[in-house]
């Protein structure tokens, strides 16, 4: 349960601290546009993404059980957060995030981090691809400049026909900015994999919009100016009825935060030949979500892509994650007005790339051909339920069926039922 920061700090040297500082600044340049884009896609004010990256990112690195984990808002939460805000408002999301944090703290204290091994891998892969598909579908109109009627549903079965029906509103300038951003991100990532190409691509596309006076929607035009300081902590209003109403959402947020953070920590272990402390990591996720909620932020978890960026940039201790959070805070103080010039198609293009990478297309052939038929069916069922039904249903059905299949493979003998003595 001891945070990795306490065990790595005594071993730090000036050179290692400098390496962590460079890595933290590099990751911050990736996290900045992503945090804004994730908040917007979730239906929340853009500033909440930065608040989450700063507050939760700091707490996850300071208290977590991984040497190189980077925390903050992630794409996996977009679907859940959007649904909670649509049904319960932003205040409902904040309370659900606070509840999820408490659940995670309890799970960490009970040393439940090792339970990640019980979640079937096809279920994780299925809902991850499903979430990626939903993110892509939600960002497609902004990326190509299609204007949907007000009140267009977010559900895939209704949104797809709405996008097709509105194809006549396509704006060529927005399409050029969105496609150009995607191409620039991919090209920079391939040419300079250690370079924070995300912010360069988004900033370059936004600069082109401003210099050429293109008729493209910007973050400032749609949402107004970003605040330059963190908000004051506030406890959300609570009642028994409200807590009961939001409990299902809180459980889903806690589940996603726990699963994604531990998956990210395991990936990081392989990259740095380390060993994370799962219960400490879960406990840190809980504290981070409580802290984010008290500051009006979004749910947070370990971010696999940002963690990998941190490792590639030379980060080797939790100091890199702390520097990442502090860098975002400094940029928020010093350059908040500049964020208003960010082009919405550029941010949407960034999320399209994020969704593509999140789905891990390099593994699709293996999912479709390797392993047991039952695993492929389970993955497909979870994916379909995620996209066309509900994430709660997808996870519940997927985990239940996956555990049942696991018990069947282990040839667990059936229970010997006897008539009740009445």
Q: Main attributes?
A:
two-stranded antiparallel sheet, about 425 residues
Task: Note the topology.
Elements: H1 4-8, H2 14-41, H3 46-63, E1 71-72, H4 78-109, H5 121-144, H6 156-165, H7 172-191, H8 197-212, H9 219-223, H10 240-272, H11 278-294, E2 301-302, H12 304-312, H13 319-339, H14 344-358, H15 364-369, H16 373-388, H17 391-409
Task: Explain this structure.
By secondary structure, this protein is mainly alpha-helical. It has one domain (about 5-225, about 240-410). It has 17 helices and 2 strands. A two-stranded antiparallel ribbon has the order 1-2. The longest helix is centred in the middle third of the chain and has 33 residues, at about 240-270.
Give a brief description.
The protein is mostly helical and 422 residues long. It has one domain. The chain has 17 helices and two strands.
């Amino acid at each position: 349960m001891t945070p990795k920061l306490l065990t790595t700090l005594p071993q730090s040297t000036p050179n290692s601290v400098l390496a962590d500082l460079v890595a933290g600044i590099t990751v911050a340049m990736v996290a900045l546009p992503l945090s804004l884009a994730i908040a917007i896609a979730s239906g929340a004010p853009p500033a909440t993404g930065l608040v989450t990256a700063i507050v939760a990112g700091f707490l996850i690195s300071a208290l977590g059980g991984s040497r190189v984990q980077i925390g903050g808002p992630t794409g996996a939460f977009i679907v859940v957060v959007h649904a909670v805000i649509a049904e319960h408002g932003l205040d409902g999301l904040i309370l659900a995030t606070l509840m999820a944090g408490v659940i995670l703290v309890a799970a960490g204290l009970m040393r439940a981090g090792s339970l990640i091994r019980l979640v079937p891998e096809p279920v994780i892969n299925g809902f991850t691809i499903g979430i990626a598909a939903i993110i892509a579908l939600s960002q497609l109109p902004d990326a190509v400049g299609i204007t949907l009627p007000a009140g267009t549903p977010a559900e895939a079965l209704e949104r797809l026909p709405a996008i097709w029906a509105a194809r006549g509103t396509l704006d060529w300038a927005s399409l050029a900015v969105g496609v150009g951003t995607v191409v620039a991100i991919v090209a920079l990532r391939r040419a300079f994999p250690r370079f924070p190409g995300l912010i360069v691509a988004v900033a370059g596309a936004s600069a082109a919009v401003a210099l050429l006076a293109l008729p493209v929607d910007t973050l400032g035009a749609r949402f107004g100016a970003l605040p330059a300081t963190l908000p004051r902590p506030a406890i959300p209003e609570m009642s028994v009825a409200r807590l009961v109403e939001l409990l299902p959402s809180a459980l889903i947020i806690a589940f996603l935060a726990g699963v994604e953070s531990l998956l990210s920590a395991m990936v990081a272990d392989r990259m740095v030949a380390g060993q994370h402390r799962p219960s400490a990591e879960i406990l840190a996720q809980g504290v981070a979500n409580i802290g984010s909620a008290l500051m009006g932020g979004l749910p947070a978890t370990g971010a696999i892509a940002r963690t990998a960026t941190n490792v590639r940039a030379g980060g080797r201790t939790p100091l890199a994650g702390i520097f990442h959070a502090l860098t975002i805070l400094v940029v928020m103080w010093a350059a908040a007005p500049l964020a208003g010039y960010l082009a919405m198609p550029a941010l949407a293009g960034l999320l399209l790339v994020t969704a593509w990478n999140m789905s891990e297309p390099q593994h699709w052939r293996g999912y479709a051909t390797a392993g047991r038929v039952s695993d492929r069916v389970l993955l497909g069922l979870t994916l379909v339920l995620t996209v066309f039904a509900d994430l709660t249903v997808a996870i519940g059905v997927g985990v239940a069926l996956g555990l049942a299949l696991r018990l069947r493979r282990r040839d667990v003998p059936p229970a010997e039922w006897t008539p009740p003595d009445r």
